[in-house]
């Protein structure tokens, strides 16, 4: 994945998260949970893109 495409994806995710936090009314605890989940997903995606972890489709959650 080219570096410019990576930066564009990160900017788009950041802007979407900012819009959700700024303009959609919800409880602050739900916003914090949403922020943490998005950050964890983005970090896992970045690790996968840079080859530090395997393919994300091989990760299983649950049984």
Explain how this protein is built:
The protein has helices at 3-23, 28-49. It is flat and about 35 Å long. The termini are far apart. The chain is mainly alpha-helical. The longest helix has 22 residues, at 28-49. The protein has one domain (3-58).
What overall form do the CA principal axes indicate? flat
Specify the helix fraction band.
55-70%
Overall pLDDT metric = 89
The structure class reads mainly alpha
Order of helices and strands: HH
Termini Cα gap: 32 Å
Main beta sheet: none
Unreliable segments of 5+ consecutive residues: none
Q: How large is the count of helical segments? A: 2
Q: How many whole angstroms does the radius of gyration measure?
A: 14 Å
Q: Total number of β-strand segments? A: 0
Strand content: under 5%
Compute the number of structural domains.
Answer: 1
Give descriptors for this structure.
flat; 68% helix; mainly alpha; 63 residues; single chain
Compose a concise summary of this entry.
The protein has one domain (3-58). The protein is built from two helices and no strands. It has helices at residues 3-23, 28-49.
Secondary-structure topology with pairs:
Layout: H1 3-23, H2 28-49
